[in-house]
Amino acid sequence: LASVLLPVAECGLFQGSSGSEDEARPSTAAAAAAQKREERLRKFRELHMKRNEARKLNHQEVVEEDKRLKLPPNWEAKKARLEWELKVEEKKKECAARGEDYERVKLLEISAEDAERWERKKKRKNPDLGFSDYAAAQLRQYQRLTRQIKPDLEQYERLKEQYGEALYPTSDSLLHGTHVPSKEGVDRMVADLEKQIEKREKYSRRRPYNDDADIDYINERNAKFNKKAERFYGKYTAEIKQNLERGTAV
């Protein structure tokens, strides 16, 4: 009897445990679904916040770009220049408050490598910017000639001892007839003028038009057209042009 009841009891026990597992499965599935839904909602909220942030940043960038477009073209250079000037003024005030010379402090802050680089850059720089007007060309010529002058310091000291304060004229000074140039000074001036004349004679200006060429145009535009036509078709029409000039064209 005991051997018969034991399998029956075991079967009843197994049926009860399977029923509890069936009841736990729906609750576990519902919790997993709720967790997945909550995770999706969280991701959706994050994407929504990122979209709003990107929209805000985009709007700010559009506003800044519109401001930049309305500024003058050289605004960045002007802004950098103004900031540099403000820093220089603040540095000067600090040096003045400490009783120091700003130029000396600035030179102490410059390294030897930077100084050498700036000197090389100054030497490479071409001071002649080309022709702008006759006044600027005359000024460059005057500066070039004055750099070539080698003053006689001994004669200057003798004149300073001889004339004293009269050597430095003012608006009340009478200059006519008070100074007689030396023979060496006159010879030096004559040699310099002859050198300028010789250099001017060697200079040859490129002329845009040939005065000896035949005039076969009515204006500058027509002259350019004729040059192009001659360049492309001149070798084909040379014989026709010669016949027309000789009057032997058929």
How would you characterize this protein structure?
The protein has 250 residues and is mainly alpha-helical. The protein has a domain at 74-123. It has helices spanning 2-70, 75-98, 102-109, 112-124, 134-148, 153-163, 183-202, 220-246. Mean pLDDT is 79; it is low at 1-17.
Distinctive features:
single chain; 250 residues; mainly alpha; 75% helix; disordered N terminus; spliceosome; mRNA_splic_SYF2; mRNA processing; nucleus
Q: Give the CA-based shape.
A: flat
What's the tally of helices?
A: 8
Report the sheet with the most strands, covering strand number, pairing sense and barrel closure. Answer: none
Rounded Rg? 48 Å
Order of helices and strands: HHHHHHHH
Mean pLDDT rating: 79
- Spans of at least 5 consecutive residues whose pLDDT stays below 50 are 1-17
Helix content: over 70%
User: How much strand?
Assistant: under 5%
Pfam family, one: SYF2
Subunit structure: May be part of a spliceosome complex.
Function: Involved in pre-mRNA splicing as component of the spliceosome.
Region (Disordered): 15-37
